[in-house]
Structures are given as structure tokens and as C-alpha cells.
Amino acid sequence: MASVEVDGYLIEKLISEHEIQVIVQELAERIYTDYQGRVPVLVGVLKGANPFMADLMRELGRGNPETGRPIMPVEIDFIQVHSYDGQVSSGEISQSFDLSTSIKGRDVILIEDILDTGRTLTSLMDRLAERKPNSISICVFLDKPDRRKVSVEAKYCGQQIPDKFVVGYGLDWKQKFRYLPFIGVVGQAVASQISTPPLLLS
Q: Which residues are part of the catalytic machinery?
């Protein structure tokens, strides 16, 4: 795909805005099939999962006349943990924001932007399981299987990607680029005053 200049950097598009919409629709169909008749709690992992969870929630809420999928009620909550310093996972998981409601006896879908090492999602699954929900499943927009350090699988996965550092659609580099409506890879700096572009992971 083409590259665009954003905030002094060239961003190579990896997944377009239209492709994101199609992926979200497909995930909503699968979730409805598995949870019809129930009201699952979508638990978004702040900050990165926010755009993805909002789109997924709206897609479930509008239904799909073409496939016959009706409106599906859901509830939402949020949790926040930290494991990254810039591009590199520290391996240390610290929690800074907790759920505001009880999930005991509920069906929980943990919503995350990306699954890479698996450490964060494994830690979150363990913490949520202690609250005795009826079920917990993982839904991620992106999966980088080449980065896996611990064994964890997402029941719902939008798309697998190669081991490249990606931004956009909630994903950031030092709080930059979350606002982009597509998924992209940060390339070289194009502004002379910017001396430290992100390092690309091979």
C-alpha cells in the first residue's frame, strides 16, 4: 500500500480503513453466533483497544440486515495495564485502572488491539478469572504470532501480521499516531528537525 506523511514521518499503510471495517463486521458475526441470547461484557484494554471496541460495539448494536443478524445488546467496561516502554515490552505488567462493575457470573470478552508476546493478556486473563465470571474469551484486532513468549490464543482474531511495529487505530508510538484510521508501519523521518524516528522491528 501507499505511504503517507504524518507528523514528520512516512507511514506505510498496512491495513486500510475499509479493510478494518470488513474485519470488524466479520468479528461481530462470529461473536453474535457464539453469544446470541446472552449479554456479554466487553472489557476493553486501555488505551489502544478503545477505537476497536467502540467499532465492534456499534457493529453489534446495529445488526446486519444482509446476514439477518439482529441487534445484539452488550455491556462495556475498561481495564488498563502497562508493559511497554516505547517499542519494547518490559515484561513487567502493572495495573493502573480497574473495572467499575462486577463480572461474577457474566460472559466476558476481553478486547485488545494486538496480541504479541502474550504476557499482558495472560496476566489479564488470570486477574479476571479470579472474579469468577461465567466465561472469558479474548478478541484481538491484530495478532503477531512471531512475537509470542507465552502460550495464549485469541478466540476472535481480526488479522495476523508480520513482526513489524505498527501504529494507528489506537496503536501508538510514544502516544503518537493513535488517531490514524488505518494500521501502518512507521518509516523514516522526513522532517529534518526530527532526529529520532522509531526503530523498525525486523
A: 116
